[in-house]
Design a protein that fits this description.
The chain is α+β, with helices and mostly antiparallel strands. It contains four helices and 13 strands. The strands form three sheets. A seven-stranded antiparallel β-sheet has the order 1-2-13-4-9-10-11, with no helix packed on it. A four-stranded antiparallel β-sheet has the order 3-12-5-6. It has a two-stranded antiparallel ribbon with strand order 7-8. InterPro entries: B30.2/SPRY_sf (IPR043136), Neuralized (IPR037962), NHR_dom (IPR006573), SOCS_box (IPR001496), SOCS_box-like_dom_sf (IPR036036).
């Protein structure tokens, strides 16, 4: 049975009165060419370029980011990942459409966009077109550790993609942090969320490597359960879910950040006198 969320007071923080949402997982209902791993956190398209539509297992909570990292790419196809929200219960679908665009969208109550650098930004009614201009580059993590989207404040640390550990990983990581790589590059992190408004509707936002692309759609039914939609389409072959911390950072996360900021690059972590588990956590997370 779909969960129904109480209206969220604007600016309400995560805390005892508003518990953090549960970890995200992929739904058991998905496209015919998708294989989801036993943990429910990795989705791979095993053949062709289509039939790759996936959904979140549960409806998203207001302000909860459904965040995926692109793990594998496949050459030879034209097109990339598609992302959005739907008010349709995946379990109620007679069959999962071949494509999210236009097939799933044509069923109604669905908002999905192909991922691009200059994303579809919807200006408010009566406001100038200038509001639709893409936002400026995000500040560095050390300068502004939180991403603020309407009434929500989300730690940016895990929103930003990271390169594989290597001699030049510290340079590559900066490219992800500044969001100058193609938005659908391998290891880029892409997320979708909705923000309720006082009139009972919601805005949908898409986040690319820690940068809010602005409202992609307005007027979503905030009172209805909204599921995330991820279309593992064409050149995008495999994605994995990334879990976020919404309240105060855990001690583990704070330790990781201190260690990472104390070395030139992540390979240098191997030379520290730390347990192997902690080294691996600092290198790969």
């Amino acid at each position: 049975m779909a969960a129904v969320f109480d209206p969220v007071e604007l600016g309400a923080p995560w805390g005892p009165a508003r518990p953090e949402p549960p970890p995200t997982r992929f739904h058991r209902v998905h496209g015919a060419n998708i294989r989801v791993d036993p943990s429910g956190t990795r989705a791979t398209r095993v053949e062709s370029f289509a039939h790759g539509v996936c959904f979140s297992r549960e409806p998203l909570a207001p302000g909860q980011v459904f965040l995926v990292e692109i793990e594998e790419k496949e050459l030879g196809w034209c097109g990339h990942l598609r992302l959005g929200l739907t008010a349709l219960d995946p379990a109620s679908l007679a069959a999962v459409p071949e494509f999210s665009l236009p097939d799933l969208v044509s069923l109604g109550h669905t908002w999905v966009f192909a991922i691009t650098r200059h994303h579809n930004r919807v200006p408010r009614e009566g406001r100038p077109e200038a509001e639709a201009v893409a936002p400026s580059r995000p500040p560095a993590l050390l300068v502004e550790p939180y991403l603020c989207i309407e009434q929500f404040r989300i730690p940016r640390d895990r929103l930003v993609g990271r390169s594989r550990p290597g001699l030049y990983s510290h340079l590559l990581d900066q490219l992800y942090e500044l969001n100058v790589l193609p938005p659908t590059a391998r290891r880029s992190r892409l997320g979708v969320l909705f923000c309720p408004r006082p009139d009972g509707t919601a805005d949908m936002h898409i986040v690319i490597n820690g940068e809010d692309m602005g409202p992609s759609a307005r007027g979503l039914p905030a009172a209805q359960p909204l599921y995330a939609v991820v279309d593992v389409f064409a050149s995008t072959k495999s994605v994995r879910l990334v879990q976020l911390e919404y309240g105060l950072p855990s001690l583990q996360t704070l330790c990781r950040l201190v260690i990472q900021r104390s070395v030139v690059h992540r390979l240098a972590i191997d030379g520290l006198h730390l347990p192997k588990g902690l080294k691996d956590f600092c290198k790969y997370e």
